[in-house]
Design a protein that fits this description.
By secondary structure, this protein is mostly helical. 35% of the residues lie in helices and 3% in strands. The protein starts with a helix and ends in a 12-residue tail after the last strand.
């Protein structure tokens, strides 16, 4: 029975991950905490980010997620995967073409990856992992805090709920790093491709109280910068990228 349960969990995890893996800039702290990577530091996979002169760099964002992916980030801890691929296996799956497994992000979202195999035996695959903390832990009213270093990352990367009264302000600060017309380096690079937003005019507009990602949901994906259109919630067809209060001249 235990072996059967693990096989079911493994199959369920693979199906969910392969159909839904779509890495985002924004991270649900509770889901990340319950993931297999939830106890490691952001710095373990994103070393050096806090030392970069420009983060995020619009030119890197424009490459799309797959172009920025480096398999050595995964192999540093999962070196056995390469050996298994050489033997024609990936997990319990027989592999015909090992090169087809070169991009881990195609199936695995590193921030929400569920434990697969023996470690997953306590969980009900029909329920979200972050709702099953009691399977291993005593119930708690709140999550353990991030380390000071990781909290710096989460200041921008923590996801917000639509009904959060501060959601609009939080997302505007993140988006305006590149999209505001304030003369910053990231904004100057962004102005080469899209018009910028005048923050003062935006703050007095009806949209100032609406989170950017309500109308631009795709912008949270790691393919941000490769999108030519946006899809608004009520639209049936993609609409050309447009923002109501754009600067009249790019970069000024």
């Amino acid at each position: 029975m235990y072996i059967l349960q693990n096989l079911i969990i493994t199959a369920f995890s693979i199906l969910v991950l392969c159909s839904q893996a779509n890495a985002s800039w924004l991270i649900d702290a509770s889901k990340f905490h319950a993931s297999v990577h939830g106890q490691i530091s952001c710095q373990d996979c994103h070393e050096g980010v806090q030392d970069e002169d420009l983060h995020p760099d619009p030119e890197d964002i424009g490459k799309g997620g797959p172009a920025r992916f480096r398999s050595d980030h995964c192999v540093a801890c999962h070196g056995g995967v390469l050996e298994s691929l050489k033997e024609g296996l990936h997990g319990t799956v027989e592999v015909q073409d090992p090169k087809a497994y070169g991009s881990c992000l195609e199936c695995h979202d590193p921030h929400y990856q569920a434990a697969i195999g023996e470690e997953a035996g306590r969980f009900d695959p029909s329920k979200p992992l972050h709702e099953q903390c009691g399977a291993c832990h005593e119930p708690r009213s709140e999550l353990p805090p991030f380390s000071p270093e990781d909290e710096i990352c989460m200041k921008c990367h923590r996801s917000t709920e639509p009904d959060d009264p501060e959601a609009a302000g939080k997302m505007a600060r993140v988006c305006f790093h590149c999209h505001a017309n304030e003369g910053r380096p990231a904004q100057q690079l962004t102005a080469r491709d899209v018009p910028l937003i005048n923050p003062d005019e935006y703050d007095s507009s009806p949209h100032a109280g609406v989170s950017c990602i309500i109308c631009h949901p795709q912008a949270t994906g790691t393919n941000h910068g490769t999108l030519d259109t946006i899809r608004r919630p009520l639209d049936l067809e993609p609409q050309p990228y447009r923002v109501g209060l754009l600067s009249k001249t790019r970069g000024h």
